[in-house]
Amino acid sequence: MQKIQIKKIILGAILAAISAAIRLSSDYLFPSGGSFGLPLYSIPLVISSLYLGPWFSLIVGFVADLGIGFLGPYGYKPLFVISSLAWSFIPGLIARKNYNFGKMAIAIIISYLFASLGNTFAIWVHFGKGTAVGSLIVRLVMLISLSPFLIYINHVIYERLLQAQGVNIAKTTEEIS
In angstroms, rounded to a whole number, what is the distance separating the alpha carbons of residues 20 and 45? Predict the structure, then answer.
């Protein structure tokens, strides 16, 4: 196996573990949704998508979701994987090439929307229509209010990763991989 592939696998595993640890910590510290809808677990998934590529990051998101589901207090419900996959895939498609803050903002908002819709679908299947519709309204309000925070945090982390590698931010991230 090539040295670069091994590094990608190791970094992907670390980011999946960080994502699962963040989510599990909030689930156990603040039971019954006490994290107020702030998907902090998505930060490592977004970074994975931008840094490792959207296709490789799908695996990272799936592995993170398995950890969240099997180790979490609510049991594994496979339909909730949609949100992890949205966070893992969409940012890399939108913002990886010719990266800039605007692309990051668009990527986060679209990912958040798809993750919210995926979770709403999973809630509909597992818990019924009333719960799903009620939670969708809350999710959309959270999307509007929390997106700026997620955009800023992801941008700062990704920009610092690029700077640590000595990459000019204006260059495409395609040259990194």
Answer: 10
- Report yes or no: 144 and 79 within 8 Å, Cβ to Cβ: no
Convert the pLDDT of each residue in 22-52 to its tens digit. 999 988 887 665 455 689 999 999 999 999 9
Cα(28)–Cα(30) distance, rounded to whole angstroms?
A: 6
Please give the angle made by the CA atoms of 67, 68 and 71, to the nearest 5 degrees. 75
Say which DSSP state 34 is in: T
**Complete domains list, the chain, with CATH:** 3-175 (1.10.1760.20)
User: Largest Cα–Cα distance in the chain?
Assistant: 51
Q: Could you identify the residue written with the tokens 């959207």?
A: 54
Radius of gyration of the chain (CA): 16
For 34, phi then psi, to 5°, come to -70, -5
